[in-house]
Specification:
Helix content is 54%, strand content 9%. The chain is built from 15 helices and 5 strands.
Length: 292
Amino acid sequence: MADVTLLFGIGATKAGTSWLQFYLERHPEVHLWRHKELHYFDALDHGRVMETIDQLCEKRGAYRARMKSASEKDQVRLRRDVEEIDRYLGLIGRGEENAKAYVAFLKKGRKGAKVVGDITPAYALLSEARLKMMAGLAPVTRFLYVLRDPIDRLWSNIRMMAGWKGGSEAEIAERANWIFDRWTEGKERAVSERCDYVGALERLTAAVPAEGRLIAFYDDLFSQDTADRICGFLGVAPHPAPLERRVHEGTVVPLDATRTAIAAGQLAPQYDYVRTMFGGLPKSWRSETVGV
């Protein structure tokens, strides 16, 4: 694989990775899986292969259903989506790790692209040993991790979860507050894991050499300068970024002042760690306004 760079976009959750996917998959020198979030390594490591297969089959069924009433142009696109899911099911459905087959999956159809990759935010939760193994899959491997203000990231994550069942804005707000309160009581493990910048950064910096990792801030992501920086990191030419586009914006539900203060207290170690690591924080991060 010396002829191609391998990219892992490892998060953070709700920190612009869908926008990053949208941008990079349209770069002429980059080849990504169409659907984002392969969940290959976390499914294997955490015993979630069947869960991943079920989700893929559900997505495939939805695409097939849409084909019945789609235009001819959309049918072509949806057929490609179904075919690609089928191809990935052939890989993950083995139920056992095959790094060579995984890399071959990423490379198939690249047509000379210099970069192939897998953007799966859940990879930030992988062990140091797993990240080190992934870093060794190609002579040139790059890891990209985007940091967002911890309170904003948390609340965006919770609002996304609250919106899964649909409903009115009031219903989503009520569910979001309920999930938040459960998180403060230690009852939302998945939410808590995704709040842990300290653990993710320590594992990443221990497993991946400095030249192989780029840690960026969400505040700077939607700019051509940052897009150019990412392209330079990947060894590809600069490419215009869709700066006006926002992907997967959730229902607008404000976080009240009482819960903001609670989140600030619980997330203080995350702010402190990032502040120490980078010698400061972006001015827009809430810690600068809530006294963290």
